[in-house]
Amino acid sequence: MALLAGLLLIGGALQFSVAAAQDGDAVATAPPELLLIDAGSSPYVLIRSGAAPADVTITIGDEEATVDRPVVIADSGLPVQTAIVIDNASAADDVLEPFLAAARAYIDNAGPNEDISIWTSGGVSRLRVGLSNDHERTAEIVSGIVSANGTSLLYDTIRDAASELTDSGAGATNVIVFAATIDGGSATTAAEARGAVQAVDGSAFAVATSDVVVSAMSTLVSSTYGGAFASTDDPEEIAGYGTSVSQVVNGTWMIPFESVQLLDENQIAITIDGTEIRASYAGGSRTSGRALAPFTERGDTGIPGFGFLAGETGRTLGLVFGAVAAGLGAFAVVLLLQKDESNLTSVLNAYSDPYGTTPVVEDEDRGMSKNALLKRAVELTEDLAERRGMLSRLEATLERADLPLRAGEALTAAAGIAVAFMVVGLLLIGNMMGMLVFAIIGVLIPGFTVRVKAARRRKAFMAQLPDTLTLLSSTLKAGYSFMQGVEAVSQEIEDPMGGELRRIVTEAQLGRPLEDAMDASAERMDSPDFSWAVMAVKIQREVGGNLSELLLTVAETMTERERLRRDIASLTAEGKMSAIVLGALPILLGMAMWAMNPEYINTLFTDSFGKVLLGLSVFAVLAGFAWMKKIINIDI
């Protein structure tokens, strides 16, 4: 008696030990495994079990279904199809006879309604026997198979064998592979071979006699449901594998049932001899393999740590959280769009408006953050930001973007948007990962928006600077003082330059030195060019000279620098576009390939080596993009 110790895995859960004796004595025990749910007009389930189901209970929703007597698949009338792939490459000559003996043993134990095809992979993918239930003739052809010249085209053969099968459903479609040598140059990849088996809902069985094919065959088996994998080089164990697999296939049972709630529900609970199996299904159709979604208890949110959201209490809390999130999001949007006229700017309107048309607002409680609760939230966020050293940077960014918000108000608004996005992610996706992804998006959007607005305003400010200096020079030639010239230009030029000049004039009228006010504006707008202009004014004030001509010279210098900057931008446009195309190409190409062949791309996310390659490729793309950006980014 030879022990088949290598038979380790059936569908990820079905485990058994087989005593495959030469005298025919074989005993198989296995826990039941659900393979298929047919929720059509004649509903049934397919169960693979080592023993005949004796006590079966099926519950749909809250109703117990009427269950008929289980029928072994050989007597069920369902078409059973099996493709046997035999490695007969020249390097597999030592194990070819045990392979053939195992194939004959499977054929001898096959049911009368089972169609079997025989394929060999040595030298070329070759069909020896098409799908047929003439088992005696098939066994004779198997006995005549000899070693072939060349390497094994294993993946091509698995793909071809699976493609010949029809989708009879998990448990009724099987692919058995006897492999001894590594694939020798198939046009088909391992992922494509697995995808072909999965496409027909096939159960994969494999025996590997050498370490070089163990990984590929075990991955093939684990990617399907109801299969088995063994690794051994013992001829007796290999020969007994055919009998063992036939016991597994013949241990597939069809259990018909009837339920009035079949189409109204989508969850099923099956109890077989005390073992309970739960799953979800699609009403009116057949569900099998990986499409059998995990069973969810009624009231279970499916999110670890969020069980309190179950039932009526969960719905109530969800409505409350949703309302709070919506309120915070609305507050954030309004706060970003509406100017707060109770701030320092409105108080200074009396100084910045020479005609006094804008009244001074004296009501200190008009700001949107003056509500007691929101005011407290703003204070807390300001304290937190100040302790983290973020307050000054955030205030500078808000001023540069011309957003009438305190740093605490902006942080509170950003928190509201993040919470709103988190709730939306929870409602749309329904799991923790979706909630976290949406929360991250909600955190990034406000900061990105403020930075983009600040960058655009700074760019507009820089573009207006040469014209502003030219206008200021003209006012000085007309006899204005420097202060009068700045005030006159501030009333004529558009924002953002006009607003900054009016602020400079206001600060000067309140007693701040004009040069200091201009320095503060240059720092606020992060403008080196304006800083140089202010420096020129300071030098002229100290050493004397014609300020009008000096400002014209500075303006012409800035104009020439801007022209040079645009010339460089034109010359580097090709490099920038190349960086964008090369950076986006791997992502877009990967998305296209995933759309055309998901199984092929999924290897990168499921296989450990694929994950390493994916990580290295992402690093390489980012490094290359940063390198190209550094090359084409020329400071003027």
Instruction: Supply the number of structural domains.
Output: 3
Largest sheet: 6 strands, antiparallel
**CATH class type of the largest domain:** Alpha Beta
Please state the oligomeric state of the protein chains shown. single chain
Spell out the CATH superfamily of the largest domain: von Willebrand factor, type A domain
Category from helices, strands and their pairing:
alpha+beta
The gyration radius over C-alpha positions equals: 38 Å
What would you note in describing this structure?
Residues about 1-30, about 295-315, about 340-345 and about 350-370 have low confidence and may be disordered. The strands form four sheets. Strands 3, 4, 7, 8, 15 and 18 form a six-stranded antiparallel sheet that branches. Helix 12 packs antiparallel against helix 13 (about 430-475), helix 15 (about 495-510) runs antiparallel to helix 16 (about 515-525) and helix 19 packs antiparallel against helix 21. Helix content is about 55%, strand content about 15%. It has three domains: about 1-295, Rossmann fold (3-Layer(aba) Sandwich), CATH 3.40.50; about 320-565, no CATH class; about 575-630. It has helices at about 95-110, 135-145, 155-165, 190-200, 210-220, 235-250, 310-335, 345, 350, 370-385, 390-400, 405-430, 430-475, 480-490, 495-510, 515-525, 530-545, 545-570, 575-595, 600-605, 610-630; strands at about 1-5, 20, 35-40, 45-50, 55-60, 65, 65, 70, 80-85, 115-120, 125-130, 175-180, 205-210, 230, 250-260, 265-270, 275-280, 285-290. The protein is built from 21 helices and 18 strands.
